[in-house]
Amino acid sequence: MRINKYISLTGYCSRRETDRLIDAKRITINGKTCVPGDSVEPGDTVLIDHKPIPMKEESIYLAFYKPVGITCTAQKLVKDNIIDYINFPTRVFPVGRLDKASEGLILLTNDGDIVNKMMRSENNHQKEYIVTVDKSINSDFIKGMSNGVKILSTITNPCIVTKIDEHVFSIILTQGLNRQIRRMCKVLGYKVVRLQRVRIMNITSEHLEVGQWRYLTDEELSCLKNTLK
User: Fold this and answer.
1) What is the pLDDT of residue 121?
2) Which of 73, 110, 111, 132 is the most exposed, having the fewest neighbouring CB atoms within 10 Å of its CB?
């Protein structure tokens, strides 16, 4: 079994985070420093920072309303990282990212398996945002955003865009391009003033204040897992 899959199944961290640990030479297999692509056989001794991987803890699933200025990374050396901010008593890590300048819903968990499934299907599940821009929204803007905009050497997928008021619209994406909404608006001559993520798949930020977190309900978790099957 590939080392990144092996470690993610222990619940210690995701495959992506495992790759970072490998690059930092923090993982050994039978005393030998791990390199990308290494595999683990039954009976092998895998250590992280010269210590055994902790036993898998009870799975934790959190919905968190990220404030502006917090960086979505599990790397503790990064100033204002999301892990230090939330200060959860056991190890969790964010599912995906939300720009430092943006706010809103992000999920955190210690379940590496569900992280891998969500990251693999990132271009299939819905994420909804409320966006405030610097000038009046017109029909050309709504049409352009809906039909697709050329950014990062590609055309964004068609999406659902709804005008809320003169400077505010909602947008539902099924893509995860870097700073996608900000780049799309810029191409069409608009600047994003505020960007809030309010929904990821079936989970919403409703009833969460800025900086607050809550556990996912059994119903939310069941629906999420069924969607990711």
Assistant:
1) 57
2) 132
pLDDT at 96 over 90: no
Residue located via tokens 């961290």: 13
Catalytic residue among 99, 113, 165, 218: 99
Number of domains making up the chain: 3
pTM for this predicted structure: 0.77
Average pLDDT over every residue of 168-197: 96
Number of H helices and number of E strands within the chain? 7, 15
Measured CA to CA, the distance from residue 12 to residue 53 in angstroms comes to 7
CATH number reported for the structural domain that contains residue 171 in this entry: 3.30.70.1560
Domain assignment of residue 118, yes or no: no
Q: Is residue 87 part of a domain?
A: yes
Active site residue 99: yes
> Element (H or E) spanning 128, and its range?
strand 127-133
CA distance 63 to 74: 16
Higher pLDDT, 91 or 210: 210
